[in-house]
Amino acid sequence: MNIKQSLWLLVILSSSVLAETLVIRDFHDREHAFVFKSDGSMVELKELGLEPGVELEITGKEGGQYLFKAPDGEQYRVFVPEVVTNQTATIDIPCDRPQILLADDHRNASARGVGEDCK
Known about the structure:
Low-confidence stretches: none
Number of strands: 10
Helix content: 10-25%
Structural class: alpha+beta
Strand content: 25-35%
Distance between the termini: 43 Å
Radius of gyration: 17 Å
Strand order of the largest sheet: 3-2-6-5-4-1-7
Shape: globular
Order of helices and strands: HEEEEEEEEEE
């Protein structure tokens, strides 16, 4: 395979990955979750009135936080390990070890759910 073929293969593979819009599907702890307004103030998630199951499109990522727009039109930030996205991977680990969740970029992880659904 020459360089030109390799580049085309890379373009084809990366375009299919980029085609999927990254969305927040849920928050790990809806009851105690906080998000941040663009002015830096903290807001409890329940104050936004988001119904479970409502997907929020991620508009960017900065400093370990996802940026998203809520239905009220306001831009918010949330730390990556606090949410479940359409690209979050779950790794099942035996019950004697904690379960982890890896963010889509596999650089951020959460130990939430320790002891739940282990094998």
